Amino acid sequence: MRMRKKLEFQADRIEAVLALHKVPARVTGGTVTPRWVRFQVLPAVGAKISRIKNLSEELAAALDAPSCRVSRRGAAVAVEVPRDDPQPVRLLPLFRQLDAGRQAGGNIPPVTAILGLAEDGAPLLIRLPSPDVAHVLVAGTTGSGKTVLLQTMILSLAMANPAPSQGESRGGGLALVLIDPKGHALGLFDGLPHLARPVVREVEEMTEALRSLLRLMENRQAQAGRGQPHVVVVIDELADLLMVGGKGVQWALTRLTQRGREAGIHIIAATQKPTTAVLGSLVKANFPVRLVGRVTSVEDARTATGW
Description:
- The protein has helices at residues 2-20, 49-53, 56-62, 91-103, 146-160, 203-223, 238-259, 276-286, 298-305, and strands at 25-32, 36-43, 69-73, 76-82, 112-117, 123-127, 136-139, 174-179, 230-235, 265-271, 289-292.
- The protein is α/β, with parallel strands linked by helices.
- The longest helix is centred in the C-terminal third of the chain and has 22 residues, at 238-259.
- Helix 6 packs parallel to helix 7.
- It has two domains: 2-82, Threonyl-tRNA Synthetase, Chain A, domain 2 (2-Layer Sandwich); 128-305, 3-Layer(aba) Sandwich (Rossmann fold), CATH 3.40.50.
């Protein structure tokens, strides 16, 4: 009730600011997410949306908010302000929400990971077998949240997909190969039944793991079999792996990212050093999806996003 009254008050303030500046419009609805409050504003026919955008500072002041984002959404305008009490997005409640939808007749495709919440408050998912996805790069400096995102993706995949030994009658299940060059990010998953091998930490083990995946890929392509377990390879620090593993590791990763999807092999790699010198053409050509947080330079941002 308290939140509702506050939202109604803020909606009135938005309409008052717009009326004061002779922009006929009304607030018709809104959405509350863990970090943002979004108001849907419907301008009158002929009202200039650019004038609403130019009033972002006035709207922020009227709403007692540090900032205000204004953008057009179809015929309406979204006015967004950060919440006073931002809430964490917790994985288990999100998964229960999805699971309840599945039990009610919805469908979560296999090998689909949870990323968080979309702008409209709905769960944000990514389906790795999709031709538009296949492999994912996560880039960001220390503290940007990339390791937590990796852990969230691993856990959500494990919760939603059976291990290979459990999934023979349900489409093959999911196998995980976790490569952790620094040895401190993925160790909490030791003992997970989905692991094809223990968490890989040593250089020799990393090289052997990648060679084993190449052999698996070639065997599957030769057999053209169906119903085999999907394999998701998660690498916590791609740049470190490439530097310590050398050209052999880079060649193996390039082959896996180029041809792995057809064999049901997908790579999720994170790095805090998305530099051209380290990643080179591997990222540019073979990671269709890039999730980029805070990076140290414009050049790193361009490399990570592929611009």
